Amino acid sequence: MTDTSRRNFLKLTGTTMGAAMLPFLKAMPAHAQTGGTIVIVSGQTINSLDLHRTGTNRASYQVAVNCYDRLVSFGTKDAPGGGLSYDYDTIVPELAESWTISDDGLTMTFKIKSDATFWDGRKVTATDVKWSFDRAVSAGGFPTVQMKAGGLERPDQFAAADEETFVITLDRPSKLTLPDLAVPVPFIINSEVAMANATDDDPWAMEYLHMTPAGSGAFKVARWDQGQQLVYERNDAWVGGPLPSFERVIVREVPSPATRRALIERGDVQMSFNIPNKDAAELDAMDGVDVYSTPIENCIHCLCPNFNFEPFQDANVRKALAYAIPYEAIFQTAAYGRGAPMWGGEAEITDTAWPRKSPYMTDLAKAKEHMAASGFASGFEVPLSISLGLADWMEPTALLLQEAFGAIGINTQIEKIPGANWRTAALVEKRLPLHLENFGGWLNTPDYYFFWAYKNGHLFNSSNYLNEEIETLVDSTLHIPMDDPAYAPNIKRMFEIAFEDLPRIPLWQPALNVAMNDAAGYEFWFHRQLDVRPLTTATS
Amino acid sequence: MATRSKMILGRVAQAIPVVMGVVVISFLLTRALPGDPAAYFAGPAADEASIAEIRETLGLDKPLFQQFFYYVGDLIRGELGTSLTTGQAVLTDLGARLPASLELTLVALLLSCAIAIPLGVLAATRPGTWVDHLCRVLVTAGVSMPTFFTGILLIYIFYYLAGLAPSPLGRLDFIYLSPPHVTGFYLIDAALAGDWETWLGALKQLILPATTLALFTLAPIARMTRAAMLSALSSDFIRTARAAGLSDRKVLFGYAFRNALLPVVTTLGMVFSFTLGANVLVEKVFAWPGIGSYAVEALVVSDYAAVQGFVLAMALLFVALNLVIDIAYALIDPRIGLN
Questions:
Q1: Interface A:B, Cβ pairs < 8 A
Q2: With 0-12 CB in 10 A as exposed, 13-18 as middle and 19+ as buried, what is B9?
Q3: Most CB atoms closer than 10 Å: which of A217, A527, B99, B199?
Q4: How many other CB atoms are there within 10 angstroms of residue A264's CB atom?
Q5: Which of A315-329, A386-400, B7-21, B132-146 has the lowest mean pLDDT?
């Protein structure tokens, strides 16, 4: 054996030589089946094993995905840019075997798989589902907000009719409810284990589940060293989907992108999750490493002119901005061409696809025309704000914008705001006159995007935009089914208004980049976290 | 001996006002940090009500002096609070990360001393020769290359190109289990457990980051040794010793070196404390779960408890370090007492 790289070593130990050679594997009971180990590196840190807990960060959502089940999940389709993606339009069973929705759309009845068990061997019952849903709507913070998006607001909406039947009663029918059950938030917890570890101060066992998951999902947590690694171990009794190919998954935290790149290129790790655009572009050109760059659904990087800053109340000024932006240069410099362009689209809106290209493109003459026609022909000064936490794309973008806006008489100073302040300044106080923003909606319908980003007072409407027609349109469209006759006309009208009023000027649709070396099966998810369940060894 | 321990106690007592000052200042400084931790940790989609809820859970809705009293009360009970970034008790975090940083820094300093002190002595005894020039070149190169650059360069050469070094994946490669926790120093813990395989694994992981740090800390130690040796060698008592016919060896190590050690130990103390807090970049490059990156991440997101815990731990460490250095002075030079 001349090639003694660890990749081969792992392959051998995983399949033929058994686990006994490795001290690490010695300590954990290894199953004698086929399987093996995959090592994944990521720059993000996991800070909790419980998504519902206050302060749980995004990287930790992967535990909810991999270790817990939901009633339903999304199907799979081919992703643009290679690889697989979740499919928003297909809802498939996970813990629920089947479900029915009453004719008035107000009652949803789920039948739970009768062979579904938790890791401790106990059967999953409707009581567990009820307890978990009650927890999600009562925990406060993000989980409660996300549940509310699907019309799930109060514990009295959930009932366990019998051991295997769970019923949801809605206040109003909504097309968002079923998809909202497939997001990571409404995951199902072993309520008996949780309640045994709950206290009077902590009725939802937040402290216990924070460190010790108790679920029915495809993987259990074998080991968690905060700040270093998370080790998943397969649950062979999983009934939520096809049994994962890997028996053990090691997710290592490596903060430095340069180190992650060296590891994936050498093949000592099989996957590097969420790599920078620059690395994605360069690794893609190399042999041996597969790069998947999936444009993130329902997410757009935008330039937002704030309506409480006087010059931006002038429609001509906003249009001048949109025509002055050097779109292609920004896309190539800040995104290394990863993602999808969002400029130069058709003027006429014929479909409801979203994100979609705006009808604007770089045209300095038109920009100058609009400036001349505005009430601010002599130009003005404005700070252009960016977040230091998102400096990787915001800083190059801002520099190019600064140069381009200078040419039409708008002088900008780049204001860098610390990551901890950004949210308060941009989204809560909405006080930044001109800034970059990147909202992405989990539920993939345009009206959901508009609900968060174009309705007055809503969190991601950082431009203080108010348009009465948009308000009415979003309210009347948000919950109606997508095949409702009013849906498509309403959505098209929203697009028209958004592109005419320009409270958010689309720049490009960002991509989530993943590099794989000797592994396959990667699937993109809207939550942009790692789903380790479908991963397999390379098929070649 | 009795007077010495009394003096050590006296020095510890002197540290109490320092620590109290640190508690007040770290509390006030963290509150002065920009940013609203409640809004930050409520997550991107949170509404006003949930942010207010979180602010209440964190106790941030109370007036500042009340928050301070709660904090001091917790401190007296030995609680440092919970870090929002890592989701763990700050004490647990520090317990896990401080030994990682200490192990790396100590190994790096040992390595650095092993090279820098002989080099400095040689350079001082042979000024103007090739040894002196080598010392100068090495020192200039070491100090002028930023640590993250040296780190990435070493990874590129020894891991990526040559394949000699293990994967830069932190303290232990994933095929090893961390040794049972005794001191938190993997080299010591693995040796105590008699697990030499893990010991070797931990040592291998240490080599590149320790070398990176050693290269950086070489300069002050080597330069200080050289300067101190030069001044000691040109002083009167050395001339006397030489005139009395003592052997070169005795003069060099018995008299000159012992006298030159004082400034070297002082520098060493400074370099140690500086390196411990400042090796963030090395920690990031080598995925080392150390205290520097912990503090920086906590600072960026205004994680009050973690920042305060870090500052307090560092303050206590410095107090202890200064004490050790003072004792070392007294051992090296009998003229210096502890008071």
A1: 162
A2: exposed
A3: A217
A4: 26
A5: B7-21
pLDDT digits (tens, 9 = 90+) for B187-239: 999 999 888 989 999 999 999 999 999 998 998 899 899 999 999 988 898 88
CB contact under 8 A, A259 and B300: no
Element (H, E) at A74: strand A72-78
| pTM greater than the 0.90 cutoff | no
Write the DSSP symbol of residue A514: E
- Provide the chain A residues 127-146 that lie in CB contact (below 8 A) with chain B: 140-142, 144-146
Strands (E), A175-305: 219-225, 229-234, 248-253, 271-273, 290-295, 301-305
Which tokens is A437 given?
A: 């923003």
For tokens 């109290």, name the residue. B20
List the 452-491 stretch of A: residues with Cβ below 8 A of B. 452, 459
Phi-psi region of A379 (alpha: psi -120 to 50; beta: other; left: phi over 0): left
- A residues 381..410 contacting B (CB < 8 A): 389
Which residues have CB under 8 Å from B242's CB, separation 6+? B251
Q: Which has the closest alpha carbon to B292: B305, B304, B278?
A: B278
Instruction: For A424-457, write each residue's pLDDT tens digit.
Output: 889 888 999 999 999 998 999 999 999 999 999 8
Give the residue from A504, A513, A466 showing the smallest Cα distance to A360. A504
Report the interhelical angle of B258-278 vs B90-125 (nearest 10°): 140
Distance CA A320, CA A382 (A): 15
Encode A122-133 in three state secondary structure.
Answer: CECCHHHHHHHH
| C-alpha distance from B84 to closest chain A C-alpha (Å) | 6
